[in-house]
Amino acid sequence: MVKQAILITAYQNIEQILEIISFFDERFEFYVHIDRRRDLDTERLENLPNVHLSRACVVHWGSLNHLNAILLLAKTAVSDPDIYYLHLITAQDFPCKPLSYFFDGFDSTKDYIRRKPMPCEGWEDNGGFDRLDYYNPYDIFDAKKTGKLINVIVKLQKILRIKRRYPAGFPKLYAGGSYWSLRREAILYILDYTERNPLHFARMKHTFCPEEFYIQSVLMTAPFAGRLVNEHLRYIDWSTGRGGYPAFLDETDFASIVASDCLFARKFDLETQNILHKYLLSK
Fold it and tell me: pLDDT digit string (tens) for 181-217?
């Protein structure tokens, strides 16, 4: 049986992961990475035959280990020859189309990833280049606790005119969102590129949110780069700030979510996930 893979990066609330899994059927496999720092009871996940669980990385917000966790999940998924398509989400996401849409409604012969060349218009920190040009020690410090210290370290480098170099052959940089839906062939290309260019991947250390530009930049070197769809199929509200950025979605958003072309929406609390699940079942 050919299958799709759902890759989930999570750090809290097992119930939300279980709610996502309950939406899908036996044509899907789930590859879940949970932040190693989190003391969560994963027994119910471990007992599900289509769930592959990892706690390999401590994932500080903004650090390289989020990208490491993503690549680990992707590598594990494509080791199953039946997996032909992969979707990356978080535990606070939820599908926003009926299950049949995943096979009949969108074109799974295409790769969906949002990207634009750097410097990115509208991005702070020099169009995104400050994330790479200076040492951003998110791998060392927990930015949720010491974010101001990280900012001081970056500002000090600017004052002292310290700027990082790039290794030879480093690709032209593109950036976009963290989440995507990609063919097996695209994932294999990313993994092969990473193995063949260890210095390029090593250069991602001490950058900020490398998952927002590494995968885009690698895919734009692929022979199929011209066929990438510049869309991520994710419904995200960055404008209202309800509960944070991105905003927490609720029932007032359901009509817009379902009317969109998106496969997933983010982000939700558990109660709203459950209500959206029932709403989609009624469609």
Answer: 999 999 999 999 999 999 999 999 999 999 999 999 9
118, 173 contact by CB (below 8 A): yes
The secondary structure of residue 112, as a DSSP letter, is: B
Residue type, 43: E
Question: Can you read off the two tokens belonging to residue 198?
Answer: 């260890």
Triad 31, 32, 34: Cα angle to 5°: 160
Q: Is the backbone peptide bond immediately before 95 cis, with ω within 30 degrees of 0?
A: no
Look at residues 199, 4, 226 and name the one whose alpha carbon lies nearest to residue 108: 4
Grouping H, G, I as helix, E, B as strand and the rest as coil, residue 8 is: strand
The overall average pLDDT reported for the chain is 94
**What is the residue extent of each domain of the chain?**
3-115+173-193+224-281
Quote the CA–CA distance of 2 and 221 in Å, as a whole number: 28
Q: Measured between alpha carbons, how far is 53 from 227 in angstroms, rounded to an integer? A: 32
> Using a CB cutoff of 8 Å and minimum separation of 24, what contacts does 30-33 make?
30/5, 30/6, 31/5, 31/6, 31/7, 31/73, 31/74, 31/76, 31/77, 32/7, 32/8, 32/73, 33/7, 33/8, 33/9, 33/57, 33/59, 33/69, 33/70, 33/72, 33/73
Q: Which residues pair with 265 in a beta bridge?
A: 94, 235
Domain 3-115+173-193+224-281 carries which CATH code? 3.90.550
Beta-strand ranges (E) seen in the chain are 3-10, 28-34, 51-54, 83-90, 93-95, 116-117, 174-175, 181-183, 234-236, 264-266
Which run of H or E residues covers position 256? helix 254-259
For residue range 22-70, list pLDDT tens digits in order. Answer: 999 999 999 999 998 888 888 999 999 999 999 989 999 999 999 999 9
